[in-house]
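Suppose a colleague, Dr. K., hands you the sequence of a protein chain of 145 amino acids and asks what its three-dimensional shape might be. Before reaching for any lab equipment, you can write down a predicted structure in token form. Begin with the sequence itself:
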Amino acid sequence: MPGGYVCSATMKGKPRKGEVLAAMHGDRPLRKVFSEEQRTFYTAHAPDGLTLDDLTVLGPVFVLKDVHEPRELGRQLVAELWLLPDGSRILELSTKCTPPEAFQVAVETRAYLESLGLDLTGDSHTKTKTTLEFFAADLRNTSTD
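The predicted structure, expressed as tokens, is then:
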């Protein structure tokens, strides 16, 4: 990100077809969408007494994703366009590397993006924070109506 970077990690799981929609509609416990490993991680890190089934489902968000490996960069770039229900959009370009490579990769990636004429000086926000703030405000507005 301009002025900084974001470290992230994933713990992937693949729910069966229809599980997510069933949980969103209240037809299946939310915890059943997550793998045993994910549930164990949640239990170890969540506030005491807050179970996965206590959480509120936010969304959906329509996401377009493309993975590309530009020859000039020599590494994969992932582009995600998140489309929120109010029509706002969030574009994220990201790449992966090991911690020791982080600063070199950041310099090279920034130089590549600038060589394409992209303006990297704009106000930047992470897609997750922006999306959570959008839905939290929507949830607050719905509960006060």
